[in-house]
């Protein structure tokens, strides 16, 4: 794409943000004193179950909802109480990518991408050039004349991404942008968003309930529950050592490195003791295993997985030990002093 379309990301900061909705006589606190920063050029994943407050949070960024209290700063400018007339100018720098694509069915792929450029008053020749660049960038150079009903879900979302990029935004908001797609198409769309971020430096905020999406694309993650950010950090920090029960639950859906209950029951049907060990660069597992083998213990790996994120490798491994009980207990005691080790029992 041309250099004219390159950009730089927006810094987003939430300060003590609270949002209360009034329903009849009841009040619902959708956001409760949220403080969170997305640095310029970062991809931030905001994850939570339904009702966690994540979609309300993203609506604060483009001024579609006003907070009850607190601040929303875009590059240092507080838009929390900004009038609609000024918000329209702010929104020109924000692109939206939707779960259900939100394409005009009466317009072709090219027509959907061209629409925001028409609203900006861009000339016809320049619009045509920009649309062609965008279609090529998202891999749909030969699909510009197709209507949405003639496109697959993944192709529709590519059109949605191209449309979001049309006005050369500095910030992209993706609200459950892959929830309607199959796993293979989801991967392709996430790779495209990662390329957008890498190529143009655009800040991207991804709202999702799928930890695999966060793992695939984000630099940092914020975990929300009941309107509160309960945990935040780099992808590696949260995935390798989740601190809250909700984060642990999400991570478990993405990292299949421990046996579930059915698998554990199957493993316990055989002789030996089972241990799940956290693998880290300094866990001491190999030394403890060598000592155990020298003492007559047989060690079999029966389950596990290792993941590399942000240049760090981590994971868990489940092993079965058969042999002298004193040596097995010494293996456990040695590792328990340096890393997390849990015995699986009935």
UniProtKB/TrEMBL annotation:
Keyword terms: Amino-acid transport, ATP-binding, Cell membrane, Membrane, Nucleotide-binding, Translocase, Transport
Pfam family, one: NIL
Superkingdom of source: Bacteria
Transmembrane segments: none
Any Gene Ontology CC annotation: membrane protein complex
GO BP terms, alphabetized: amino acid transport
Record flagged with keyword Glycosyltransferase: no
A Gene Ontology molecular function term of the record: transmembrane transporter activity
Keyword ATP-binding part of the UniProt annotation: yes
Annotated SUPFAM superfamilies: ACT-like (SSF55021), P-loop containing nucleoside triphosphate hydrolases (SSF52540)
Entries under PANTHER family matching the protein: AMINO ACID IMPORT ATP-BINDING PROTEIN (PTHR43166), METHIONINE IMPORT ATP-BINDING PROTEIN METN (PTHR43166:SF30)
Protein's name according to its UniProt entry: Methionine ABC transporter ATP-binding protein
Lineage: Bacteria, Bacillati, Actinomycetota, Actinomycetes, Mycobacteriales
């Amino acid at each position: 794409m041309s250099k004219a379309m390159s950009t730089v990301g927006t810094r987003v900061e939430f300060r003590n943000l609270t949002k209360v909705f009034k329903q009849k006589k009841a009040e619902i606190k959708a956001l409760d004193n949220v403080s969170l920063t997305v640095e310029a050029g970062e991809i931030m994943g905001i994850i939570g179950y339904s009702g966690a407050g994540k979609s309300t949070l993203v609506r604060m960024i483009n001024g579609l909802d006003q907070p009850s209290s607190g601040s929303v700063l875009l590059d240092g400018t507080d838009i929390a109480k900004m009038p609609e007339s000024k918000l329209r100018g702010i929104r020109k720098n924000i692109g939206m990518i939707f779960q259900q694509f939100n394409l005009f069915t009466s317009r072709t792929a090219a027509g959907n991408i061209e629409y925001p450029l028409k609203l900006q008053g861009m000339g016809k020749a320049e619009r045509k050039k920009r649309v062609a660049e965008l279609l090529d960038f998202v891999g749909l150079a030969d699909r510009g004349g197709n209507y949405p009903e003639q496109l697959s879900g993944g192709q529709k979302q590519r059109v949605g991404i191209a449309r979001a990029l049309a006005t050369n935004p500095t910030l992209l908001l993706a609200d459950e942008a892959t929830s309607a797609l199959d796993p293979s198409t989801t991967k392709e769309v996430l790779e495209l968003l990662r390329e957008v971020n890498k190529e143009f430096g655009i800040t991207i905020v991804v709202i999702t309930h799928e930890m695999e999406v966060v793992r695939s694309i984000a630099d940092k993650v914020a975990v929300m529950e009941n309107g509160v950010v309960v945990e935040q950090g780099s992808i590696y920090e949260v995935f390798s050592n989740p601190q809250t029960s909700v984060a642990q639950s999400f991570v478990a859906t993405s990292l299949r490195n421990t046996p579930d209950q059915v698998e554990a029951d199957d493993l316990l049907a055989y002789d030996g003791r089972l241990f799940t060990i956290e693998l880290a660069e300094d866990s001491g597992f190999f030394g403890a295993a060598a000592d155990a083998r020298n003492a007559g213990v047989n060690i079999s790996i029966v389950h596990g997985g290792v993941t590399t994120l942000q240049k760090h490798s981590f994971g868990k491994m489940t092993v079965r030990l058969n042999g002298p009980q004193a040596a097995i207990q010494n293996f456990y005691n040695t590792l328990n002093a340096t890393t997390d080790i849990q015995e699986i029992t009935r």
